[in-house]
Amino acid sequence: MPNPETIHHTDLEPARPGEVFHREWNAYLKELPRLLAEGRAGQFVLVLDDEIIDFYPTFGEAVTAGRQRLGLRRFLVQQVREREPVLRLKWVG
Questions:
Q1: Is the pLDDT of residue 31 over 90?
Q2: What is the C-alpha separation between 2 and 67, in angstroms, rounded?
Q3: Sorting pLDDT into bands at 50, 70 and 90, what band is 49?
Q4: Neighbouring C-alpha atoms within 13 Å toward the C-beta of 44
Q5: What integer is the mean pLDDT of 66-93?
Q6: Domain boundaries in the chain?
Q7: What is the C-alpha separation between 47 and 45, in angstroms, rounded?
Q8: What are the angstrom distances between the C-alpha of 36 and each of 31, 32, 68, 71, 91?
Q9: Whole-angstrom distance, CA of residue 9 vs CA of residue 48
Q10: Higher model confidence: residue 56 or residue 92?
């Protein structure tokens, strides 16, 4: 089975103000080279506003911890990866 298309982390675009999670995404992108250098690839990072809060081994654990620690505040959970999958959406209408 062929590998899905991916994009290297250095080619990822920052989010613009007004986009959902723009502060969280941009904080993640800023810290990503350091996180990869520290061996955090594969872990899930919990990000609130401009701050990385903590790391977790699974998506579910990160979401649960985020809800417990942050309540109803909006937060981002993102897997630390050197390459991000490219998502292709097909409009059916």
A1: yes
A2: 37
A3: very high
A4: 16
A5: 90
A6: 6-81
A7: 6
A8: 9, 6, 27, 29, 35
A9: 20
A10: 56
Identity of residue 17: P
Q: What is the CA radius of gyration of the chain?
A: 14
pLDDT for res 3? 56
Q: CA 40 to CA 35: how far, in whole Å?
A: 5
- Sequence length of the chain is 93
Q: Which residue has the tokens 């250098």?
A: 37
Work out the average pLDDT over 42-70: 97
Give the residue carrying structure tokens 């590998």. 3
What count of Cα atoms within 13 Å lies in the side-chain half-sphere of residue 20? 3
